[in-house]
Write a structure and sequence with these properties.
CATH class: Alpha Beta
Distance between the termini: 5 Å
Largest sheet: 7 strands, mixed
Number of strands: 14
Strand content: 25-35%
CATH superfamily: Ribonuclease Z/Hydroxyacylglutathione hydrolase-like
Structural class: alpha/beta
Mean pLDDT: 98
Order of helices and strands: EEEHEHHEHEEEEEHEHHEHEE
Number of domains: 1
Number of helices: 8
Shape: globular
Oligomer: single chain
CATH topology: Metallo-beta-lactamase, Chain A
Low-confidence stretches: none
Strand order of the largest sheet: 6-5-4-3-2-1-14
């Protein structure tokens, strides 16, 4: 399995792109603004999108993706997400008001878009790849993902705050190699982190203390304007994990 980071920021501006990751050539993990940097052929090769949750920074490219290359494809783009997330897309995005309903275009019998419900803990197997929704704790229904090649696993926390259920799952993964975890705010914004169900460095330290193995740790979803400060605080709080900042075009081969 090869995971390429298309976007990993908590906002936009300059080179910053919001959360999106390309698994091999055909699967997106979230669909933030980073998807827009792919060319048309690459976009047309995407068959599946797995969503952590419904927030705009994670779903914004789906409407443009299906509109741009739907006609180039021989089958629908499948969006995999929790039932609540899919309902939000139906009600608030693909509703003929914000965007056309591509589950009915060009026809209900042969649409450009289809939905597939995910359930927490239920693995989706695809050509030897195993994608498993794992617990997240956010202001809307949300999951993270375990991506398992058989040889190694990568865990992506999605957007989350303190979350004992996540670590119960993660600590049972015998082949965990990489952990990508969010830390959206600096410590001075702890109240905002708590209210919005994100992490700040001191909270991240409390969470990583629950981890019983030592994967390589990468930090995602840093807010623009506080990237350097937040990473400095993270490095001070969890130095023993040697955390690194995730960046665009980084590739994980596992």
């Amino acid at each position: 399995m090869k995971l390429r980071i298309l976007g990993c920021s908590g906002g936009i501006g300059g080179h910053l792109r919001t959360t999106s990751m390309l698994l091999d050539r055909d699967v997106l993990i979230d669909a933030g603004t980073g998807v827009g940097d792919l060319n048309l052929d690459a976009l047309a090769g995407i068959d599946h999108v797995f969503l952590t949750h419904s927030h705009l920074d994670h779903v914004t490219s789906i409407p443009f993706l299906v509109d741009s290359v739907g006609y180039m494809r021989g089958r629908p783009l499948t969006v995999h997400a929790l039932p609540e997330t899919l309902q939000i897309l139906r009600d608030h995005v693909f509703n003929w008001k914000v965007w056309p309903d591509f589950t009915e275009i060009p026809s209900a019998e042969a649409p450009y878009l289809r939905y597939e419900e995910l359930a927490l803990g239920n693995t989706v197997a695809m050509d030897g790849r195993r994608i498993t929704p794992i617990p997240a704790n956010h202001v809307v229904p949300a999951v993270g993902f375990q991506l398992d090649s058989g040889m190694a696993s990568l865990v992506f926390s999605g957007d989350t705050t303190t979350n004992d259920a996540l670590w119960e799952v993660v600590n049972r993964i015998p082949n965990l190699r990489y952990l990508i975890i969010e830390t959206a705010f600096s410590n001075k914004e702890m109240r905002l982190a708590i209210a919005s169900k994100h992490l700040c460095p001191s909270m991240l330290a409390q969470e990583l203390a629950k981890l019983r193995c030592r994967p390589e740790v990468f930090i995602t979803h840093l807010k623009p304007g506080e990237i350097e400060l937040t990473m400095k605080e993270i490095e001070e709080c969890v130095a023993e994990f040697r955390p690194r900042m995730l960046f665009n075009d980084q590739v994980f081969d596992f």
